[in-house]
Design goal:
Blueprint: E1 14-15, H1 17-24, H2 28-36, E2 44-46, E3 49-53, H3 54-62
Antiparallel strand pairs: 1-3, 2-3
């Protein structure tokens, strides 16, 4: 079984940076850059571990990968 192939019901709820990069077809560095620029869902931090919520990522992808809403109340 290939861990990168989608299998419903057997996928973890939280994904590490390598899994997110594989899902998006980019490098791990790109994932960190997108996160730092608030252009993708924020990760969950568990101590020193950084993980992304799988369902949140899939919803973000389904919505066209729109950047996260600004935390400045919409003021540019």
């Amino acid at each position: 079984m290939n861990p990168n192939e989608p299998t419903h019901g057997a996928q973890p709820a939280l994904l590490d940076v390598q899994a997110v990069a594989a899902l998006l077809g980019c490098s791990t560095r790109t994932i960190y850059r997108l996160t730092d620029a608030d252009r993708m869902p924020r990760p969950v931090r568990l101590g020193t571990l950084v993980r992304w919520n799988r369902d949140e990522l899939l919803n973000w992808i389904a919505s066209g990968c729109t950047p996260r809403e600004s935390s400045n109340g919409g003021v540019s």
